[in-house]
Design a protein that fits this description.
Layout: E1 7-11, H1 18-32, E2 39-43, H2 49-55, E3 61-65, H3 82-87, E4 92-95, H4 98-103, H5 108-120, E5 124-129, H6 133-137, H7 141-153, H8 158-161, E6 165-168, H9 182-199, H10 202-207, E7 209-213, H11 221-225, E8 232-235, H12 242-249
Parallel strand pairs: 1-2, 1-8, 2-3, 3-4, 4-5, 5-6, 6-7, 7-8
Helix pairs in contact: 1-2, 1-12, 5-7, 7-9
Bound molecules: 1,3-dihydroxyacetonephosphate.
Length: about 250
Amino acid sequence: MDERKPFIAANWKMHKTREEGVRFVEALQREVGVVEDREVVIAPPFTALAAVRAVMKKPGFKLAAQNCHFEEKGAYTGEVSAIMLKDVGCDYVILGHSERRHLFGETDDMIRRKLGVVFQQSLVPILCVGEVLEEREAGRTFSVIRGQLEQGTVNLAPDHLKELVIAYEPVWAIGTGKTATPVQAQEVHAFIREHLSSLYDKVVANNIRILYGGSVKPDNVDALMGEPDIDGLLVGGASLEVTSFKRIVQYQT
Ligand code: 13P
């Protein structure tokens, strides 16, 4: 059943100029060599997308944007559309990252509309979901995730749905050094797959890759990737240095 190709993604957030991004990707490709059994995805800031794309030479290396607007075009000063991301050579778009939800007020409805425009451009969304600490402590983790999943994926065609990538990023683990334990992460990943299976169907749910994000480091990557429902990682801080990200790409289970 398991055809889910491992997916290791670097989310650079608001870091790196074009030159820094290019140097990183050239070095990573040189050091990692050919990657056949996993996808390596780099999400630079908008300003570095084209430059990074231009030096991505190896198969297995893919480009992601960190966000996009929910309309195709229009008077939206400062925004970037899915059409523009397609034009610059993106493969994936991260949507609903917790920093977008919590710092920039993105709602489930906005995220749902973004998924639609991204799929229209034949790009693949990486839909982020995750609970804050108070929600976890109040025993509301599953209900929060269920709401984000249902509202984000409502109306998606089955063909689109099975391509979707989901990232579980507990907000309390992002940039805090507090990783969810592999058991905690697996519990939520299994819940997500189970819930997708009840909402849609088992085949679709078994195809969807579910990534974990939140203080992933070289020393916890192998244990996280050893869990059956963790299909990849979305890495922030540890993706900014070639040495640490290379070790994460080369995880072993
Ligand atoms: P950190 O790896 O820095 O905790 O960030 C995780 C994240 O938000 C990836 O999208």
